[in-house]
Amino acid sequence: MRRTWGWIINNPNSTESTLIEGYTSDGSFGYRSYRGYGYDSSYASHSHGWSAGPTSALTNYILGLDVTQPSGAAWTLAPHLGNLTSVEGGFTTSLGRFKASWTRAIQNINLVWNTPSGTNGTLVLPVYTGSMVYVDGVRHVLGTNSTQTTFLGEKTVTFDVRGGMGSAQVITISSLGKTT
User: Which residue, 123, 92, 86, is CA-closest to 108?
Assistant: First the structure.
């Protein structure tokens, strides 16, 4: 994503948007004119895959916002932090607008969402040793029954929430008593 889409967006020799038309493996611009376009390079476009593909990957996996039932009657919000510090995004279905954002500083995470009323969501939050979790301002005590370990060895905690506006915070206190 960063090597290709990042280059497309950030390189002054590109379009500096997600709508690149064509480029070759050495980074120069070119088109598939030899494949069904009668060697007319103006008809080959790579813009669709590079403008739409990363968008859904970033929304559904990095931001973590995805629908699990038709039109989003049920949805999940399960952020994958990586080494990012903030993400925001959303989409619209026939039920309305779904949007979310998260920010983090080390192991402290602030998550905000706004989804259509009448929908139901599942939050899957990363937690760390010493984490305190607040969902809509209510502190939740974490125990061995409330956390799961993912296949990568990360700890998560899951909460069921109703559609509408909401927020969650994961606040981690280090063993020295300082917020990390």
Answer: 86
pTM for this model (two decimals): 0.75
Ranges assigned E (strand) in the chain: 65-67, 74-77, 86-93, 96-105, 108-127, 131-135, 138-140, 147-149, 155-172
* 115-120: average pLDDT: 98
Per-residue confidence at 176, pLDDT binned at 50, 70, 90? very low
State both tokens at 116.
């259509």
Contact 102, 79 (CB under 8 A): yes
Query: Hunting for tokens 């993912």 — which residue is that?
Result: 150
Q: In whole angstroms, give the CA distance from residue 7 to residue 120.
A: 38
Residue 86 has phi, psi (to 5 degrees) of: -160, 150
CB atoms within 10 A of CB 92: 11
Domain range 67-172, its CATH number among 3.40.190.10, 1.20.272.10, 3.10.310.30, 2.60.420.10: 2.60.420.10
* The pLDDT of residue 36: 54
Q: Give the angle 4-112-88 at the CA atoms, nearest 5°.
A: 20
